[in-house]
Amino acid sequence: MKKERKIVLAYSGGLDTSIILKWLQENYNAEIISYTADIGQKINKKKIINNAKKLGVKIIIIENLKDIFVKDYIFPMIRGHAVYEGVYLLGTSIARPLIAKRQIAIAKKFGAYAVSHGSTGKGNDQIRFELGYHYFGSKIKIIAPWRIWKLNSRTDLIKYAKKNKIPIPKDKKGAPPFSVDDNLFHTSTEGKILENPKNAAPEFVFQRTISPEKAPHKISYVIIGFKKGDPVTINGKKLSPGNLLEKLNIIAGKNGIGRVDLVENRFIGIKSRGVYETPGGTLLMIAHRAIESVTLDKETMHKKDEIMPQYAKLIYNGYWYSKERFKLQKIMDLKKNKVNGSVKLKLYKGNITIVSRQTKSNAYSMKKVSFEENKTFNKSNVEKFINFHKRKLR
After folding, report:
1. Is 125 labeled as catalytic in the residue annotation?
2. Are residues 274 and 354 in the same domain?
3. Is 305 a catalytic residue?
């Protein structure tokens, strides 16, 4: 008896991936294994399981990766201060490499010959997924339905879903929903009214942040503690990576922090407009730079700033597992053991103010910076220093 072929599908349980699941069954004569990575997105496990079962799936895998996602993917990115094109904190970009890695691991475990994803043919995620697939399983076939099927529009998808009795969700206005991606780090919303950059984003698209206007009229404070470059405590309490970011999301979100309306340049050359929310991540970025300012030397900090744009670009383009990203990460982490201490932040109606930085590091010298007369800084050398640099002007 011929052994049935298997395909591992990155499955959210929603409309698009349910359509893909059915389409794979019809076109590849294979058993579909649904794989869902729980990385902190809004997830309804019962719905995922029920929808998969209705489509005849026998192997349904939902894996909790929240702590791994934060510790091994988000925290390294925070240490590198990665920001793409000045505003984007790479919330979607950083999630795909982990999902791809685990999807290939599942494929190998069950002897699947192929993996599949639900990324569209115009987006970046198809590249991020497939570079990850290639790194961990170069001999495993990749099936990208959006690039090969004949369902060329949202209308075609709706017709296909109705034909196959796949539930079609509605948004708050009773229409097909925005394109939304979310995880523990961020939420991105694209499509519909947002596609035209002249249109203001309606308030109802924001999902994890309150508007600054409606945020409390009371100042909030939060103290983030760092050890070896990574955040470990909030207000003195030690938390797991996942719980720490989740708590910061709540604190920042209720204070209207973390909203970005951006037009980005996709890897494949298309511009895209979207609304992104990264509340806790915004706090971490600011707090991490603040603690580095009193723990790292000038040359190390400037080197990190110099390579950051390329580092961020690699992550955005899907090169998380590339030799170049690994190389740059080593530079970013070269002196992370020195980055210890805490930063106190003041939060008020979308604004973040650094209140204080505390560390046992001696990188910041009170004696040298003091306006009081002291012998630790030789001012007579300053004139020699200036004269040396005058030569560079000629």
Report:
1. yes
2. yes
3. no
